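From the pipeline queue, job 12 of 40. The input is one protein chain; the requested action is below.

Action: predict structure.
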Amino acid sequence: MTEDRRNILFFPLGTFGRDMVYALVTNFLLTFILFTQNLNASQLAAVTAIMIGARVFDALNDPVMGNIIEKTRTRWGKFKPYLLSGILLTSLVIFLMFNVPLEGWAFVIFFGVIYFSYSIAYTMHDISYWGMIPALSRDAGMRNRLTSRTTLIAGIGGTLANILIPMLTTGSFAIGGSAKTAYGRIALIIAIIAPLFLLFTIAGAKEDRRDLEKTAPPVSFRKIFSTIRNNDQLVWCCIFLLLQQVGNGIALSGLGATYIYFEFGYSGGLFSLYTTIGMLPTAFLMIFYPLLSRKAGRKRLAEILSVTAFAGYVVTLVCGLVLPSSSMLKFSFLTGGYVLANFGQYGLYLIAMISILNTVEYNEYRNGTRDEAIIASLRPFVTKLASALTVVIASASYIIFGVIDYTNSISDYENLAARGIISEADKLSSIEAVLQSAGEGRSTAMLCAMCIIPVILLVLSSFVYLKKYRLDEKAYDRICRSLEERNR
């Protein structure tokens, strides 16, 4: 088996379980807290502040981790030691995150410790994983294939988690009869799956290790900041990705689940259906992105995808406001709008990923060093920062719209069911009564927030990419040719 075939087979498989972890924590941690913890506004604000603080910490942690990886010299290379140790620590952390029985301020304190621990552990293997791609191939076509195949497997893992977690934690199909029990068992399963799949990458993928023959660079903040400061295209890519990820995250990992529950009832099956149908078209992009990018070019493709996402948000907002409340017709149109919005946004995410990775050669061309791990570290940092900002928007919306008064009542019934004090049927009927008492105003407010804010961010992100990013296909090929001539 050739090296390229080994890498195209074994490298993508490693992210299947990792993206299940990411989906669990990013998309459902806030939902888990809302529906299993009785928190007042101060405690919810503290949880939000912890998430923000952890992301600010990542502003230093991610590039530092990238710098540490660049310095590493082992018989297993510079990436694989951190893949193994990082995923094992992550599995332990997510198990504890969803299985420690604490309440109130005790839970908030524990959450602070465990969430920062998750940030460190996940960063270890995430930076290592994505940092490997430039080292697996320098050919632009192969890199596109690797990235699209990897995002396909990541999408399968993440989508599977996004489908099953709501179904198995909410409503009549909840494992163990309560959300608290269900999340604990799901966390255990994912904690086992994640390291098993990453072993495919650790054992099977083979990176180019010629750069390990060079003297290891020192770990320094000056090196990190100089790499970022001297690579203007990297900076603009990160701004583009940040705006895009915050806008895209509001519907799925932010307000989406709570809106669906308030509007259509406490059933995880409906939210699973919403996300399943909404994410299906992204499989098309995962498979055919290299072809579309080659035919249309990244900038033209970005224009098309931006218009598609914009149309999706308009459909969602208009149909959500004018169609009959709680009707399946309304649900169908909302889902259709999400299909368009998610298709466009996911395509923009793929463009951002490729664009960031291509700044490795731009960095080598301008500054003489590739700094693969440092540059690759900025993608996970931006996505984590975006997830934190999404939580800020969601938490602020819940407090402003008065949603937490009702989610606290729901969590009370969930905890009573978990302790066996009330039956599952009594729990579900009581929760439905709570949701009916909330009124339509809160659902409408959440709908407006999850459509209008993403549209504003979509316009800004598209402007940044189309006007500020200059490293298109022709410029990238010219740089690669220049580097080949320089290295002869």
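Job complete. The radius of gyration is 22 Å.
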